Every structure is written in structure tokens, then in C-alpha cells.
Automatic annotation (TrEMBL):
Its cofactor is Ca(2+). Keywords: Calcium, Hydrolase, Metal-binding, Signal. The lineage of its organism: Eukaryota, Metazoa, Chordata, Craniata, Vertebrata. Residues 1-24 form the signal peptide. GO terms for molecular function: hydrolase activity; metal ion binding. This is Arylsulfatase E.
């Protein structure tokens, strides 16, 4: 664990260093654009392997635009993902930290967070690469799936919105956590609660049907009052 922790600290330092190097690049074609900065485009896709795009050897599916970006840039061949699913992998991608350190990982195995009207999300004090770029004068934007939380105290405060994590613009889907708007509660706990409530409702329905059947067949000497109350 200490080795992994040290590796992630090194990765985060490397990420900050690489961004500094990229931001320091100056085009040499013309002296009158010395203040320009390179455009940075990061693509993240769920369930995409390194061999699924053309520039890495796929000859059954055409990806000409991505291939052209690779031709004009740098191809990397080594990478370790912090998680295999949506929410935790995005948290690690944005911050360079293990998702468990920001609370963006499940406690009981429900690792893909689903509900939009939910509480909790990526803490606003996390440092994302978007915040770093924005501090350097970049215009930042996010297009696509966010999936890192949306609300805190209510279903409309949007405290975990991408605009609070360094992005100037957002156009996409805020698919988020599963749970009620209780601050910092792990939303997956609601799933376990719903399972218990569903079982309770099934037991009550069975009791109500048994009482009704017993009353109608005169097998159970009971008045209609408990039958009605159990049905309600």
C-alpha cells in the first residue's frame, strides 16, 4: 500500500509537471503568437480498450479523427486505471488520486452511481486538471457524461456541478449518485434499505391476503377492522 501510495503521489506530481511543460510550449512558426498556448483535448470512454481504435491497431472499426489526433500528437502505450467503472475512474482521471480518497467509491459493491436527485459527489476542494488549466488562463469545458455527483443538501443546489470543479462550460449528462439528499451519506445504503422495505411490503401483502381469504371463507374468526388496516 505504501508503494502504491507513493506511486500515485509521483503520478500526481508528474501530471502537474507535464501540464506545466505543455503550458510552456511556444509555437516557433511565428514570433507574433508567442503568447499562444496549445489546445489540450482529453477523451474518456467507458468500456474502451487500447486495441479498439485505429491508431492502436484496430482494422475493423474506423476512427479517423482520433487517428489524426494521434498522428499530430504523442501515442502513449502504458497506463494504469484506478478503477474499471464510471464514477471512481472519472474521479481518479480528474484528480490523479485514488477515488477512495475523495469518497468516490462504493462501500458495499454498488460501484456505478446512478441517480441524479442524490446527495454527495466529488468534493469541491479536490484539485482537478481543469482547475489547474483555468488558473493558467485556459477556457475549459466538459462535454459528455459527468457522473461525479450533483447535489448536497437538496435536489437543486448543484454544489457538485462541473462548473464548481474548474470547468467554464458543461454540456452533457449529470448522471450521479443513488440516494437521498443527506450530506455525505453513502448513497448505496439506500439500495439495502429499499431491499428490506420491499421484503416487508411483501410480508404485509401476504398477511392482508391471508386475512381476507380467511374472513371470506370463515376459516379465520376475525373482524374486518384488522383486515382493512393490514391492507392499508
Amino acid at each position: 500500500m505504501l508503494h502504491l501510495h507513493h506511486s500515485w503521489l509521483c503520478f500526481r506530481s508528474w501530471l502537474a509537471g507535464m501540464l506545466s511543460v505543455l503550458l510552456g510550449l511556444v509555437p516557433s512558426a511565428s514570433s507574433n503568437i508567442s503568447t499562444s498556448r496549445p489546445n489540450i483535448l482529453l477523451l474518456m470512454a467507458d468500456d474502451l480498450g487500447i486495441g479498439d481504435i485505429g491508431c492502436y491497431g484496430n482494422n475493423t472499426m474506423r476512427t479517423p479523427n482520433i487517428d489524426r489526433l494521434a498522428e499530430d500528437g504523442v501515442k502513449l502505450t502504458q497506463h494504469i486505471s484506478a478503477a474499471s467503472l464510471c464514477t471512481p475512474s472519472r474521479a481518479a482521471f480528474l484528480t490523479g488520486r485514488y477515488p477512495v480518497r475523495s469518497g468516490m467509491v462504493s462501500s458495499i459493491g454498488y460501484r456505478v452511481l446512478q441517480w441524479t436527485g442524490a446527495s454527495g459527489g466529488l468534493p469541491t476542494n479536490e484539485t482537478t486538471f481543469a482547475k489547474i488549466l483555468k488558473e493558467k488562463g485556459y477556457a475549459t469545458g466538459l462535454i459528455g457524461k459527468w457522473h461525479l455527483g450533483l447535489n448536497c443538501e437538496s435536489a437543486s443546489d448543484h454544489c457538485h456541478h462541473p462548473l464548481h470543479h474548474g470547468f467554464d462550460h458543461f454540456y452533457g449528462m449529470p448522471f450521479s449518485l443513488m440516494g437521498d439528499c443527506a450530506h455525505w451519506e453513502l448513497s448505496e445504503k439506500r439500495v439495502n434499505l429499499e431491499q428490506k422495505l420491499n421484503f416487508l411490503f411483501q410480508v404485509l401483502a401476504l398477511v392482508a391476503l391471508t386475512l381476507v381469504a380467511g374472513k371470506l371463507t370463515h376459516l379465520i374468526p376475525v373482524s374486518w377492522t384488522p383486515v382493512i388496516w393490514s391492507a392499508l
